[in-house]
Amino acid sequence: MKEQLELLWELQKIDLELKSIKEEKDRYPKEMKKLDEKQKIEKERIQKEKEKVESLEKTRRQKEGHLNLEQEKIKRAEGRMSEVKTNKEYQALLSEIDTIKEANSRIEEEILQVLDEIDELKRDLSKREKEVGATLEKIETERKKIEEKLAHDEKVWKDQMERREVLSKQIESKLFKLYNTLKEKRQGVGVVNVKNETCQGCFVNVPPQMFIEVQKNNALIRCPNCNRILYWDGDRTKK
Length: 239
Description:
By secondary structure, the chain is mainly alpha-helical. It has four helices and three strands; from the N terminus they run αααββαβ. It has two domains: 24-170, Helix Hairpins; 174-231, no CATH class. Strands 2-1-3 form a three-stranded mixed sheet. A hairpin with a 2-residue loop joins strand 1 and strand 2 (198-199). Helix 1 (2-80) packs antiparallel against helix 2 (87-170). The model has no long low-confidence stretch (mean pLDDT 91).
C-alpha cells in the first residue's frame, strides 16, 4: 500500500499542477484582450490628436486661400483706380479697398492664432507619441511574456499528462476510482498531506493515534471530516 499511496500522492501533485496550468491558460486570453484594448485606446488617442492637427491645418489652408482671393480683389481694385473719372467713384474705390484690407487683417490674425494652436498641438503630439511609444513597447513586452508562459505551460502540460498516464496504469483500479471520485467532490483534491496532526484539506485535527498511523503510509486512511485520503509527506507543507 505504501507504494500505491506514493504513486497516488505524486498523481495528486500532477493533477494540482495541471489544474493550475488550466487556470493560467484560461486567464491568458483575457490578459491578451486587455492588452489589445489598451493598445487600441493608446493608438486612438494619438489618432484623435493627429486629426485635430489635420483639421486645424485644413482651416489654415482655407483661411489662407480666402486671404489670397481677397488680396487679388485689392489688386484689381487698385488697378481700376486709374480708370475712375469722378472723385466720388475714387472715394468709393478707396473705401472698398480699406474694407477688404481690414477684413484681410482679421483673417491674418486668425491664421496666426491657428498657427500658434497648431504648433502647440504638434508639441503635445510629439510628447504624447513618445509616451505612447513607450507604453506600446511595454504592452508588446507583456504580450511576449504571456506567449512565452503559454508555450512553457503547453510543454509542461504535455509532459505531465504523459506522466499522469503512466501513473494511472500503475495505481490499482479501485484506488484510482476512489481518488477520482474524491477529487471531483473536493475541488480537485482527493489526497492531502497531514501536518501537525491537521488535515491540510479541511484543516481539522485528526486523532493522535490516526496521525501516528498516517505517518507510516502503510494503510489507506481517510480524514474523518472531509473524507479525503490522508498522506504523510514529512515536515513539508502541502503544495
